[in-house]
Amino acid sequence: MGQKHLVLLTCFWVLSCALLLHASSDGLQRINLNKKRLNKNAWTAAKVARQENHLRRFGGSQQSLGASSDDIVPLDNYLDTMYFGEIGIGTPAQNFSVIFDTGSSNLWVPSSKCYFSIACYLHHRYKSAKSRTYKKNGETCTITYGSGQIAGFFSEDNVLVGDLVVKNQKFIETTRETSPTFIIGKFDGILGLGYPEISVGGAPPIWQSMKEQKLIAKDVFSFWLNRDPDASAGGELVFGGVDPKHYKGSHTYVPVTRKGYWQFDMGDLLIGGHSTGYCAGGCAAIVDSGTSLLAGPTTIVAQVNHAIGAEGIISTECKEVVREYGEMIIQLLIAETSPQKVCTQIGLCVFDGTHSVSNPIESVVEKQKRGSDLFCTACEMAVVWIQNQLRENKTKELILNYANQLCERLPSPNGESTVDCHQISKMPNLAFTIANKTFTLTPEQYIVKLEQAGQTICISGFMAFDIPPPRGPLWILGDVFMGAYHTVFDFGENRIGFAKSA
Q1: Which pairs are disulfide-linked (predicted)?
Q2: Annotated catalytic sites, by residue?
Q3: Which of 22, 120, 149, 250 sits most deeply, having the most CB atoms within 10 A of its CB?
Q4: pTM of the model
C-alpha cells in the first residue's frame, strides 16, 4: 500500500501569550489574549492531542454569589486546534489554563501530590493546603485513554469561571498523567462541558452546578471561536447567554437526541450543491469544541478529498475491489439489489440483517492473507460511490474511473490530507444539512494553513473517523465548523443552536 505523508518536524514550539484587561461598556469584563499563527513545527504536538481526543471519546476511553446575567470566559487559540482559557480553583484562587471541552464532562487539573509524572511538573498544580474552601473527598478514579491514563482522586473546592464562583465543585486532582499529550500541551487541564451521563464518578459538569446554584439567568452557554489568524482574541465562551456581537441573523436549533455528548441528527453533506449520498437518510453528529477538525465517515471524506484535490493514502485494497468487482456492483445496483446486500452477494461481507460485516467464516490465516475486513469496507464505500454515479446516468467507464480516483483520495492513517494552497479559490463550497437548512463552509473556512519560514502548507479540514453502527455513522463537528458558526448549547431545553459567526 502506497503512502504519502506530510513531513513535519517533531520539536515543540512554545507559544507566549500576554493578558490585556479592560472593562467593556456593557459591564462585562473581557480578557484579550494574544495568539500566534499556526506553525507547522507545532503541528505534530497538536496532532497528537487531537488524536488523543478522538481515542478518548470513541476508542479507548473507559468513562463510565447571586445571580448573574451572563458570564464571559475568554479563549486563547492554540494553533487553531485548541481553544483554552483561565479558571481559578480554591480560595484564594489558583489559576489554571483549561480546554473547555464539550466532548467530556469532568474538570481535572494536576495535583501537588503528583510526584511521578513529568506533565505535572510542567504545568500548574493544585495545592489543597493553600485553599481555605477545600473539602476532602478522596474517591479515586482512573480514566484510560488510547495511549495512556489519567489517575487521581476527587476533591471539592470553589471554582472561579469568569466572574462566577461555583461553590463546592467536585473535580479531579490528577496524580498520574502518562499520555504525551499532557506533556506537550499548552493547557494544564480540561473543563468538560458535556452531559453528566458521561461524567466519571458522577461529578456534575460545571454548567449543572451553575444552574443548581442559580448563578446564571439562562441555562445556556455559547461559543465564539475566532479563526482570524491575525486577530489577538482567540474567542469567547459565554455562560448564561450569548454575545450578539459574535453572530449574524438568528440561530437554527436542533434537539439533542442522545445525552452524553451534544449529539443531534444531521442530514446530507453537499459538495458544490450535490449530494454525497451516504448521509442522505440521516446521520448522527456531535458538536465537540475539543476536536480541531471535522471528522466523518471515510466514504464521504474520500469524496470530499477528491473534490478538493487532496492527496492521501493510495489504498490497494480499494482499487482492487473496484477493478475486480466494480462491474458486478454496477449490475447488481441496476438490478435494484439493496445496496446493503450488494457486498454480501459478491462474497466480501456478511449481511447481519441491518448492514454488512466482514466474513466471520474465514480462518485467521485466510483473513490475514486476504484482509477481509478491509475488502468489506472498501466494497461498501464503492457501492455508495457507484450508486451516486448511476443516479447521474454516467457510463460504466466513467463510473469505474471515478471510483478508482476516490480510492486514491482515501486519507492517510493519521487522517491528514494536503491540498495545493494555490487552488483554494477554485475549490467547491461544502455544506452540512441541519434542521433542513444548509450550513455552508467555504474553502477558506475548511482548509487549515500551517506556516514555517515563509512557506505555507494547507491541510484539509476533513479527516476520516468511522464509528460503527448502532452509534454511527457519526460526524464530529469540531473547531473548523464552530469557527464558522456561533454555537449555543442550551441545556435548559436540551438543544443546540447555530448562527453565522460575525
Answers
A1: 114-120, 421-458
A2: 101, 288
A3: 120
A4: 0.76
